[in-house]
Amino acid sequence: MIRYALVCSFGHEFEAWFSSSADYDVQNEKKLIACPLCEDHSISKQIMAPSVKSTKKKPALSDAKAFAAFAGKVREKIRDTHDYVGDKFADEALAMHRGEKDEKPIYGETTTQEAEALKDEGVPAAPLPPAFAPTPPKKLN
Fold first, then answer.
1. C-beta of residue 105 within 8 angstroms of C-beta of residue 52
2. Is the residue at 57 inside a domain?
3. Rounded-to-integer distance, Cα 32 and Cα 22, Å
4. How far apart are CA 43 and CA 10, in angstroms?
5. Where in the sequence is the domain holding 116, given as residue range(s)?
6. Are residues 112 and 71 in the same domain?
7. Residue 39: which region, alpha, beta or left (left: phi > 0; alpha: psi -120 to 50)?
8. Looking at residue 37, what is its pLDDT?
9. Nearest 10 degrees: Cα torsion 124, 127, 116, 27
């Protein structure tokens, strides 16, 4: 397995593992690699130092509990400060971007095509990583 440091055309940096260098090339050529922050498919490799095994022990995975608590606080903050607009996210975000509606923080769902259209319009929007996405409120009929 090979680990690559990658960057999307918007400058978001992330890492990914591939079975070989050729595997990366094939996936990137077919636009199968997407930025985890903005889903951009224009991905390139960054310069990366080789991995050298350290003799120091890393902290135990008790950090998972701390991360889960942090993610819960992020979800709660989003739920408390943003309006859930469901599958109308793209329409709402575009209307606010064009000045047709007052700007306010929103969250919801969108299709890949709608996300691409928002990106093309210059609308500042990014997908939430699943760990931080609040559960949609339940509908009352």
1. no
2. no
3. 14
4. 9
5. 63-121
6. yes
7. left
8. 87
9. 130
Domain total for the chain?
A: 2
Structure pTM? 0.54
**Of the given ranges (51-55, 79-83, 130-134), which has the lowest mean pLDDT?**
51-55
Average pLDDT over the chain, rounded to an integer: 89
Q: What is the mean pLDDT of residues 105-131?
A: 93
Does 26 fall in a domain?
yes
Pair of tokens at residue 93: 């975000």
Domain co-membership, 71 together with 112: yes
| Residue 91 φ/ψ, nearest 5 degrees | -60, -45
**Do 72 and 108 belong to one domain?**
yes
Does residue 30 share a domain with residue 69? no
42 to 2, 59, 68, 86, 123: CA distances (angstroms): 20, 34, 31, 28, 18
Query: Integer distance in angstroms from the first to the last C-alpha of the chain?
Result: 50
For the beta carbon of residue 39, count every other beta carbon within 10 angstroms. 14
